[in-house]
Amino acid sequence: MKNRYYRVGGLTFCIHPVNVDGVVVGMPDSYQPFRLQDQTDDLLFTLTLDQVFHFSEMGTKLGRFNEDNNPQEVYRKADGGYQFLLYSYDKVLSAEMETDQAFRYITLRLQGSPQQQLFGLNNAVMISYAFSSARCGTLLMHSSVTMLRSWGYMFLGKSGTGKSTHSALWLKYFQGTELLNDDNPVLRVNDKGRVTVYGSPWSGKTPCYKNKHARVGALVMLEQKPYNRIERQDVPHALSSLLISCSLMMWDGPTYHAIINTISRILQAVPVYHLENLPNRDAAELCRSVIER
Questions:
Q1: Tens digit of pLDDT for each residue in 61-95?
Q2: Where does residue 2 rank: exposed (0-12), middle (13-18), buried (19+ CB within 10 A)?
Q3: Per residue in 238-276, pLDDT tens?
Q4: What's the pTM value of the predicted model, to 2 decimals?
Q5: Which residues does 142 contact at the CB level (< 8 Å), separation at least 6?
Q6: How do the residues of the chain divide into helix, strand and coil, expressed in percent and rounded to 5?
Q7: Domains contained in the chain, CATH given
Q8: CB under 8 Å to 259, separation ≥6 — which residues?
Q9: What's the CA gap between 277 and 223, in Å, rounded?
């Protein structure tokens, strides 16, 4: 396989295969809408697939995360870079990844069954994108996003709070609504303060991989309640809503401060709401009546 280039959220990265005999090197179908045909030198990061690669020594363990789904272990190297052990949903080690501190140069070794290797590759690319793009005014969000009349509306919340359900209500009841992404869209603020949401290759259980984007009209934090009520959040609560909804590296100072700066700029341009709701049409209509632009 030759180098493959992909552009997500306006940022381009490269998958560079070397020493890949006996390993699955095809990319998941979800990446196809984002593939570029021409080579580019303006790269966010390069991820090198190398089955000969091994950690020379382990760094200092920072923690083990995402324990309920696909756990991952993170280590910091002496030079400031990182090492990751990535596990599949069946808790089998599927990838070993090493990065520099800025996540611009990544080396990856895959293992396990073809399905586990593909899972490890996809997870490694998503992690690399999230943390390399953080210094570009970009956030990988845990969100479901609908588009209506050229605006994007982002529904936030912990797993199980009804993000996908609320998007489905908009799709069902509001003509012209389109689902952009159902799990991990890209949120980006440009130099002029304009906030845009992009589709991505990562959409959870919903196969929605669209190379489209929309200007963000509002962000809405969902909470299940036996009634429907919506109010605009003040800055501290809005900051918290965005922090818990984006991919974070709190242990890496420059990356964390870049994320905080991006969130602060977003809050200057886009309102954030708190929707206490039932999973019904009334909740969707109430939400739309308040947030639509």
A1: 998 877 667 789 999 999 999 999 999 888 889 99
A2: exposed
A3: 999 999 999 887 788 889 999 999 999 999 999 999 999
A4: 0.94
A5: 156, 183, 184, 245, 246, 247
A6: 25, 35, 40
A7: 4-136 (no CATH), 138-291 (3.90.228.20)
A8: 134, 139, 243, 246, 248
A9: 6
